[in-house]
Amino acid sequence: MRWDELFADLEGQLEQELDAERLDLAAEEERLRLGRLTIRDRLMAMSRGGAVVRVALIDGATVRLRIDTAGRDWIAGSPEAGAGSVLVPLAAVAAVLPEGDQLARGLSIRSPEPGAELAGRLGLGFVLRDLCRRRAGVDVVTGDGIHHGTIDRVGRDHLDLAEHEEGSAPRGGAVRRVRIIPFGRITCVRL
């Protein structure tokens, strides 16, 4: 009987050690998964189902967005209050302020969103070039104010904004000046 007790005791110790090893392995896998998350991934997860996400920008403003899409270095969506669309470079995000269960949803990502692979590779310059082609009137918000106009050209790290009165076409005398704005200074672009 003593042998039975000894083997039972050894078996119990081995099970405890295996359980502890499994828990350590699961915790390490979770740390690795969390270490691969990007702010873009978390924002998209938080906005699932049309949820509004509150984002603080580097200029001190806070926007509440219903995020429609996101690229490699930007997010875009419609503001909770008001019409139009807003494009926000991720470099202009000072903080994300989750509400309700958004924090948990932002951490529960297991795999990329469907269709996110293509959109996730598109950079800010690509989206700005599209706005340039469309000749859409935009408000470019920077640290020194709001600048209305039409995007004339988009370089690798900057854009040329032809400033004009809202509602007028960017032709001839309607253009007051051209402002060259580095991408790093853009807080958001409103359409």
From TrEMBL:
This is Uncharacterized protein. It comes from the Bacteria.
